Amino acid sequence: MAISFIGAGTWAISTTSGATLSYAFPAAYTKTAGDLMILVSGGWTGGTTAPTVPTNFTLRNFSYRTPGGGSIMVLHEWKLVANTSEATPTRTVPTNGNWSSSGNTWNLSGYMLIFRGVDVNTPFDATETISNSTAANTFVPSSITTATANALVLVSAITGDNNQLNLSVANSYLGRANGVNYSSATVGLEAFGSFTRTYTSAGSTSGTMPTINQPNVGPDSWATITSALRAATAPGQPTGVSATITGSTTATVNWTAGATGNSGTVTYYVDYSTDQTNWTS
Questions:
Q1: Does the predicted model carry a pTM greater than 0.70?
Q2: How many other CB atoms are found less than 10 A from the CB of residue 77?
Q3: When you count CB atoms within 10 A of the terminal residue's CB, does the N or C end of the chain come out lower?
Q4: What are 254's strand-pairing partners?
Q5: Is the CB of residue 139 less than 8 Å from the CB of residue 157?
Q6: How many other CB atoms are there within 10 angstroms of residue 162's CB atom?
Q7: Which residues is 133 bridged to in the sheet?
Q8: Residues 146, 152, 155: CA angle, nearest 5 degrees
Q9: Secondary structure (3-state) at 160
Q10: 191: closest CA among 210, 166, 208?
């Protein structure tokens, strides 16, 4: 069962200590239980300590590079969507020395990615890998070794300056959140990019990672994090299907649900017809 990328929310950024930073859901997204939310966060910091995660989220890992006078940092944080009333994630911009606004230099920013078809019991397929680099126009992030077939590899990167990241060598990776809408020439002065690829076979991704490019300014330092999401197995088919007809207008259909395949929500549809030609679901 393949993992689907549902969408990316808009990028939010703040340089104000104590301010509330909100992570918008992707436009037109219908909240669905079992979907995986990943917050890609980071920015310029005066230190090398990750900020406190938003309520009910879990930090997977973070990567940073200290190019001088501060650090650029990128993080992956996650939570499963609980139900259709899932609240918009928020966090408070830290007031400590590492993340406070010092002359509008340090900042905290981020955006949300939504994935569907992830194993709800074991959403991640491998331990994250992190990498960083001194100033360079291009960078190949660290590879990861997946444990199961159909894992989706997610690479997120940050650079200093308004670099509007893209891929110069894709290797079948797709841009999910990058370019001008995830880059700033004023507030923050940084650029983010998130890219994904599904690997049908388990194993090392060495030699197949993308080359990320700084087409707009560069060369600037890099920090990247590579995650692998585990795909849910296909749901089992229902068994014991039966129908009972009552009069001329009512039919009751019964069945025993199959295994969910660790996919969170499984929906069954019943098609019916009065003439065996035109069907309604």
A1: yes
A2: 24
A3: C
A4: 242
A5: yes
A6: 19
A7: 222
A8: 90
A9: strand
A10: 166
What is the residue-level pLDDT of the chain in tens, covering all 281 positions? 799 999 999 999 988 888 899 999 999 999 999 999 999 999 888 778 888 899 899 999 999 998 766 788 999 999 999 999 999 999 988 876 666 655 445 788 999 999 999 999 999 999 999 999 999 999 999 999 999 999 999 999 999 888 999 999 999 999 999 999 999 877 667 899 999 999 999 999 999 999 999 999 889 999 999 999 999 986 667 777 777 877 766 778 887 765 555 655 556 677 777 777 777 76
User: 50 near 128, Cβ under 8 Å?
Assistant: no
CB 155 within 8 A of CB 166: no
Dihedral sign for Cα atoms in the order 212, 215, 221, 224: negative
Q: Which position has the token pair 């309604």?
A: 280
Which residue(s) pair with 239 in the sheet? Answer: 256
CA atoms within 13 A on the CB side of 139: 27
Name the region of 75 (left: φ>0; alpha: ψ -120 to 50; beta: rest).
beta
